[in-house]
Design brief:
Radius of gyration: 29 Å
CATH topology of the largest domain: Cytochrome Bc1 Complex, Chain A, domain 1
CATH class of the largest domain: Alpha Beta
Structural class: alpha+beta
Number of helices: 36
Strand order of the largest sheet: 1-2-6-3-5-4
Strand content: 15-25%
Largest sheet: 6 strands, mixed
Number of domains: 4
Helix content: 40-55%
Distance between the termini: 63 Å
CATH architecture of the largest domain: 2-Layer Sandwich
Shape: globular
Number of strands: 23
């Protein structure tokens, strides 16, 4: 009988998995493609509109990206109180921008821009700010965003399933007649986005693309050149919309808690079937230029000490015949474990060597990254790397290696489509490339059919050709400066207004559904094992890939050396298996092992095929008991630590978190309690191995997600793993937030930053009652949580002082600790010469919060939306429950918040603000940026100015 029951469960699980991986495709009458994927594992729907139009279709102009921003401004029916009266002003603004783009005289340009500002203020009399984002929140949406790539633009968010009709009306309406309102301010926000990109290390991608593609469309940055940003033509943007935003060139993706039945089809036809028709446009092609032998280009990066090169070859695009074979060739070279290039790192011959491919629609590249050991010779390192590449080209690898890596590729592909979020990403990518769901499945099937001959042929075809050598040069590229324009900010008159479209939407009925939160007893099974060990068990409903984590109850806040130890352990073998041999053993059973050190816990994570669970646990146990010291590995760890410390402070993004931790918890910041350089240099193999054995004496939690029965997993884990010694209680990682007795403005100097970070810190103190905590949650969302927030609207929308601005409410770890406290932190990225105005604006809002009922209503719903849309996936639910239990909760705290939020009144929010925020006379500010571009003296208006040095925030 048990056997029959087990078979029945297996069949039902298989049916469920098939349903979740089924994608239904249909065409609307206007030619729009729709993909529907039903998955009830999480109580949310991911919705996206994908347009096959990106930066390559308007090279260097930034039009595709501009238009993405405009798509949040509303239409002729949404975002306006009276479009007929608003339109003449908007038409005049458009004409002035066309005039501006043809004007070279700077004085005349200034006059035109001021005139545009005057016209914008007039047009703003009819605008309803952020109505689209507010309606998205009101009707179940969260994580509203969009993205522009070289080949596509897409608009997306998650939403609660009972609001699917409202979502469809909103997202179809925005496509029908978008209006270019608020353009001058949005243009300033794009400038700020370019400033942020210029300061970020990620800007290196633009340099690489420029070197590889030269004058092809892919060579230009997505955001466009500064010159084009200064000279936008709204008429060109209107033409771009008319050409590319046609139904036949667009796709709608709905993935999650839906029913793809006739009723949904009717709804989609009624809503998205209204989008303009027209032929799919012929698009620009951007193929990779011919690569000449010996081609070299320098790329400036602010990374000291280490040398680095990237050898870039042509490669097949993602769905071309050779793509899988070259991916497998790259896996043979580099898989993070036992590849041919990995062996050079495992044997300490190089600091890093890796091979990987990246694919766009029209071109792809395969890159080999080479980083010699500290002060090593690049020529010798490159020769070693190319020797390994030739082995793949010569077929000098075993069938066993190849088959193991094929299984790993399949496992990764299965994981990429197992959750709503991951599957949605795959669907967006496939549609943008002109593919369908069957192509995705066929590509996976193609991995199974790969032969050694396929791999060798692909390696010879692509790695046998010429390549470009990109050479890292230490330094920072010249940054163009854009001055603050001095526009008058918009004074919105219609914050509480509702457009005719919004009123119409209110008539759509909504099915009342309870908020789904995690049930600690039903959604995961918790089983006590030996000593202080708990097993958190969750069945995998999708595939045969297991995940297993052993998490020890000690972290870097208690034992700072764990950070170094984690890096060291990742480079070790055992008493019977050298590092390369150990990685080959993992590879043979198709399992990966990852080591992660965190502030409050230390984890070792395994992922692999379910039929290899026991061999994986056995190999893990062998490593736990028998890890062997390696002096070369320790030297590498010390070198990497030195490079990291030397690099600190070169980028403002690196400085942000250490500074925030410094003001929030003071000297107990993990960046200040971490080991010093001297302490790291004095570490021995014996020190770290002893620490590893000591770590294993702490109580631990086991997290398993897979298809093996719980009793089997529990028995095998207890039989194989050394759990008897896990007796120490949770290490003390509690850190209270600091209270200040005077206002302070901290400044951290980062030379050559084009943009500054402005951070505010308010110590809220203890909130003993549930009512207090719920009010804080809602106040935080209302003040700084979304596009409808007070902060976003007043800093970005009305004044164009920042591209990114937001605030978050924080509670100390161990939330139910008797000394637990709260704080509120805002972070704003602003151009250096806007710093004082941005800080003044935020300070004023923190003292005098405007109350708008429509926005508060949207914030109430946003809190509920975020709770449900963040419901954990089947792989993460175990750790979610364990974290809540560790913090002192016995049931999901989100359930109480969701229940209490609707009853919180605007008066209570104002009272909370006055008591905990406005009355704070000891607010702390942080400004991070170039002090030569910032008026330091003027900052003294907000408190005593203290310049922080590296040693103040980072040990």
């Amino acid at each position: 009988m048990k056997r029959i029951a087990f078979l029945l469960v297996a069949v039902l699980t298989s049916v469920l998995a098939y349903a979740q991986l089924d994608v239904k495709e249909l065409k609307l009458s206007n030619g729009m493609t729709v993909w529907l994927n039903e998955d009830h594992s999480q109580p949310k729907v991911f919705g996206a509109v994908v347009v096959k139009a990106g930066a390559k279709d308007c090279p260097n102009t930034g039009i595709a990206h501009y238009f993405e921003h405009i798509m949040f401004k509303g239409t002729d029916r949404m975002g306006t109180t009276d479009y007929d009266k608003e339109k003449p002003w908007l038409d005049s603004i458009s004409a002035q921008y066309d005039l501006l783009s043809n004007t070279k005289d700077e004085a005349e340009r200034t006059r035109i821009q001021k005139h545009i500002n005057e016209l914008s203020l007039k047009a703003a009399d009819y605008a309803i700010p952020n109505e689209f984002s507010r309606l998205i929140a009101k009707y179940g949406g969260s994580a509203l965003n969009a993205g522009t790539g070289h080949d596509l633009t897409y608009y997306h968010n998650s939403f609660l399933p009972q609001f699917i009709e409202q979502w469809c009306w909103l997202n179809s309406e925005r496509l029908i007649k978008p209006v270019f309102r608020g353009f001058q301010g949005e243009l300033e926000n794009v400038y700020e986005e370019k400033n942020r990109a210029a300061d970020a290390l990620g800007n290196a991608q633009d340099k690489v693309f420029r070197a590889v593609f030269k004058t092809q469309p892919y060579a230009y940055p997505i955001i466009g050149s500064t010159e084009n940003l200064k000279n936008p033509r709204l008429s060109d943007m209107a033409a771009f919309y008319k050409k590319y935003y046609v139904a036949s060139n667009m796709g709608l993706i709905l993935c999650g808690d839906i029913k793809p039945d006739a009723a949904l089809t009717t709804l989609l036809e009624k809503t998205f079937g209204r989008v303009q028709t027209g032929p799919a446009p012929e698009r620009i092609k951007s193929t990779m230029p011919t690569i000449a032998a010996g081609e070299r280009e320098e790329v400036k990066l602010p990374i000291p000490l280490v040398g680095a090169e990237a050898l870039v070859f042509k490669a097949p695009t993602e769905y071309e015949a050779d793509a899988n074979a070259l991916d497998l060739a790259n896996k043979l070279l580099y898989n993070g474990k036992a590849g041919l290039l990995d062996s050079l790192v495992n044997e300490h011959k190089l600091m890093m060597a890796a091979a990987m491919s990246a694919s766009l629609d029209d071109a792809a590249g395969s890159g080999i990254v080479v980083i010699p050991n500290l002060f090593g010779k690049m020529k010798k390192a490159e020769a070693r790397v190319m020797e390994q590449v030739r082995k793949v080209m010569d077929g000098d690898f075993s069938n066993e290696q190849m088959e193991a890596l094929k299984q790993e590729m399949l496992m990764e592909a299965e994981q990429n489509i197992e959750t709503i979020s991951n599957r949605s990403d795959v669907l967006i990518n496939a549609f943008s490339k002109g593919r369908n769901w069957q192509d995705v499945l066929n590509k996976m099937d193609g991995i199974r059919r790969l032969t050694k001959a396929d791999v060798v042929a692909a390696a010879r075809k692509y790695y046998g050709a010429n390549y470009i050598t990109l050479v890292k040069k230490y330094g920072t590229s010249k940054k163009e400066t854009l001055k603050q324009p001095g526009y008058k900010p918009i004074s919105p008159k219609n914050m509480d207004a509702k457009s005719a479209f919004a009123q119409q939407l209110e008539q759509v009925p909504v099915k009342d559904m309870a908020v789904r939160t995690v049930d600690f007893k039903k959604d995961v099974t918790i089983l006590p094992l030996k000593s202080q060990t708990l097993l958190y068990y969750k069945e995998n409903p999708i595939n045969d890939v297991f995940s297993f984590t052993i998490r020890y109850k000690n972290g870097e806040l208690h034992t700072p050396a764990l950070k170094i130890m984690a890096n060291y352990l990742s480079q070790l073998g055992t008493d019977s298996l050298k590092k390369q041999q150990l990685e080959q053993a993992w590879q043979r059973i198709g399992t990966t092992m990852e080591i992660a050190s965190g502030n409050v816990a230390f984890s070792i994570n395994l992922t692999g095929p379910d039929n290899q669970l026991v061999p994986a646990l056995q190999l893990l146990a062998h490593f736990l008991r028998s890890a062997k010291g390696d002096r070369d590995a320790l030297k590498d760890v010390k070198d990497e630590d030195g490079v990291e410390r030397k690099s600190f402070g070169k980028q403002k993004d690196d400085v942000l978190q250490p500074v925030i931790h410094r003001i929030a918890v003071g000297e107990r910041s993990s960046y200040l309690t971490q080991m010093s350089r001297k302490e790291v240099k004095s570490l021995t193999d014996e020190d770290l191995l002893a620490l590893f054995q000591e770590l294993q004496q702490y109580g631990c939690e086991l997290f398993y997600c897979g298809r093996q029965p719980m009793a089997y997993v529990a028995n095998e884990a207890q039989r194989i793993l050394p759990l008897d010694q896990c007796t120490k209680p949770q290490a003390d990682t509690f850190r209270p937030f600091l209270q200040y007795d005077e206002p302070v403005v901290y400044f951290y100097h980062v030379p050559k930053s084009r943009q500054n970070y402005v951070v505010s810190y308010d110590a809220v103190g203890a909130l003993p009652t549930q009512a207090d905590r719920v009010q804080f949650k809602l106040w935080g969302e209302y003040f700084g949580g979304s596009m409808s927030s007070v902060l976003f609207q007043n800093v970005r929308e009305f004044r164009s002082l920042a591209y990114s601005t937001g605030g978050s409410a924080f509670t100390t770890s161990l939330a139910r600790h008797p000394d637990a406290t709260q704080c509120y932190i805002t972070i704003t990225g602003t151009q250096a010469d806007k710093t004082l105005e941005a800080l003044s604006t935020i300070d004023s809002l923190l003292h005098h919060i405007p109350m708008k009922e429509n926005n508060l209503e949207a914030s109430r719903q946003s809190v509920v939306n975020d709770i449900q849309n963040a419901y954990p996936s089947f792989r993460t639910v175990g750790e979610y429950v364990a974290n809540q239990l560790r913090d002192g909760y016995t049931s999901d705290p989100q359930a109480d918040i969701a229940k209490s939020i609707p009853a919180v009144t605007s008066q209570e929010i104002l009272q909370f603000h006055q008591q905990h925020i406005a009355s704070n006379s000891n607010r702390v500010w942080v400004v991070i940026g170039d002090k030569h571009l910032t008026d330091i003296k003027a900052l003294a208006r907000f408190g005593k100015v203290v310049e922080l040095k590296k040693e103040d925030v980072y040990r």
